[in-house]
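$ ./design --mode recover --in tokens.txt
reading tokens...
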């Protein structure tokens, strides 16, 4: 593979979190009955006129500002003409020659190496409907609930050189969208979708190779696997002296392969032209300044602050800031008195596992940040051991219980009375004379065995530090 350089550009479609569609007042709510959120405008009836949702312009511009784009004071909608059953008007309202945003970037880090990925453009457009194919009656149905739902398409420069960079770019882009609260980033529901354009060229060659566009990439893992397969496929063709065909290929996750969907000769000539039903979008400088002032702290800035202010590692800061609600949960826990590094460890282990199993976001967890802070402080004070804390965490999480009250009610406080523990230590040593003799003979690793037996005898409530101290004294 060292003979070839991989070149990848990505197109992302992000559904915006508006309450109504881009050109009509129909709801954008997901999961309703087919064709429930439909009107004459989004079903393409003749004689109707679109009315632009102003919030779409605001959200698109804010994404442009957050990614360092030039936000154009004037942008124009265009008709993208093609025929498909889920496109009732026979064209998609999009932007072409004059998009709302251009010339931005996103910074990524892969294996400790920082890189800047260019963004060619961000433009507004409407989503298409959805075709539903029924094998039972050999029919295809069209659901127009998604038709006219607002999208922004984010087109990158061909700056990525491998699947790891693509995944890092997509995660960074998704995080920005979620932090801005303009998109929920849900890949399973299709609100964050991407296509990847992949090509190879001999190392040292400036000219791009022939690209294949990969579709049906609905998870970060699928993106990684599809690109890996496609790179290998194209390399095999070139090694055999063949030529890569420009085409669109569909990723099959079950087989981990890509298959041809359509070739260059089948590619659409979309015949773009300005939409006569929509006036140019004009953004005043004062409005843009207002939107810029409303931008939240973005993931990269928050990550750097977590490292500087809380002493977290780059890795911990990256994990905690990947999701806005996790970052806010962490800050709330620290504000409630939790040690930052210990709170970070609990969040990345116990809390994250419970959140994933329950399928809930951190902001919806019954165990509040203040209660997590209380748990961390109970461990720090010696009231309970880390082992006990892990044992009770599922109950605390599921019921949103107060840790201090729960520990008191269950009698789980750590035993730190040296007299009480001394009896337990003597009992364990008396029950294991052979191990005591072996320890005194040099097998010091048996210390862990003795500690384990004492913890078992005290049901995990013995103070580990005091146990070690007493054992050292007794075995001295």
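writing sequence...
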């Amino acid at each position: 593979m060292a003979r070839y350089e991989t070149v990848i550009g990505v197109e992302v479609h992000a559904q915006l979190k508006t309450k109504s569609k881009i050109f009509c007042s129909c709801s954008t709510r997901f999961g309703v009955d087919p064709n429930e959120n439909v009107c004459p405008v989004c079903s393409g009836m003749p004689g109707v006129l679109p009315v632009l949702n102003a919030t779409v312009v605001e959200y698109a511009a804010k994404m442009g500002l957050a990614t360092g784009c030039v936000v154009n004071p004037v942008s124009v909608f265009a008709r993208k003409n093609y025929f498909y059953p889920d496109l009732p008007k026979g064209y998609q309202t999009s932007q072409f020659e004059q998009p709302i945003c251009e010339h931005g970037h996103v910074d990524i880090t892969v294996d400790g190496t920082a890189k800047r990925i260019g963004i060619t453009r961000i433009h507004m457009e409407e989503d298409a409907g959805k075709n539903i194919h029924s094998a039972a009656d050999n029919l295809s149905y069209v659901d127009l609930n998604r038709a006219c739902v607002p999208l922004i398409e984010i087109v990158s420069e061909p700056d990525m050189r491998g699947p790891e960079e693509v995944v890092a770019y997509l995660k960074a882009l998704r995080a920005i969208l979620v932090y801005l609260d303009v998109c929920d980033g849900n890949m399973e529901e299709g609100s964050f979708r991407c296509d990847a354009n992949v090509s190879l060229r001999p190392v040292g060659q400036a000219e791009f190779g022939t690209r294949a566009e990969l579709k049906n990439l609905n998870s970060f893992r699928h993106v990684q696997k599809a690109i890996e397969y496609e790179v290998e496929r194209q390399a095999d063709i070139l090694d055999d002296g063949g030529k890569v065909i420009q085409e669109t290929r569909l990723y099959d996750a079950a087989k981990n392969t890509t298959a041809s969907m359509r070739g260059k000769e089948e590619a659409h000539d979309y015949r773009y032209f300005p939409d006569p039903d929509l006036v140019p979008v004009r953004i005043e400088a004062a409005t843009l300044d207002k939107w810029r002032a409303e931008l939240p702290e973005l993931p990269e800035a928050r990550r750097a602050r977590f490292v500087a202010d809380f002493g977290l590692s780059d890795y911990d800061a990256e994990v905690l800031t990947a999701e806005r609600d996790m970052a806010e949960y962490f800050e709330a826990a620290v504000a409630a008195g939790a040690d930052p590094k210990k709170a970070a460890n609990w969040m990345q282990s116990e809390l994250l596992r419970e959140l994933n199993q329950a399928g809930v976001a951190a902001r919806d967890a019954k165990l509040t940040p203040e209660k997590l802070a209380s748990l961390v402080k109970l461990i720090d004070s010696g009231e309970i051991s880390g082992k006990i804390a892990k044992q009770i965490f599922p109950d605390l999480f599921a019921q949103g219980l107060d840790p201090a009250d729960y520990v008191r009610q269950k009698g789980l406080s750590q035993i730190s009375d040296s007299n009480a523990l001394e009896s337990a230590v003597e009992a364990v040593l008396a029950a294991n004379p052979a191990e005591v003799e072996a320890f005194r003979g040099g097998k010091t690793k048996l210390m862990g065995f003795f500690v384990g037996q004492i913890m078992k005898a005290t049901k995990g409530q013995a103070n580990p530090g005091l146990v070690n101290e007493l054992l050292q004294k007794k075995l001295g």
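exit 0
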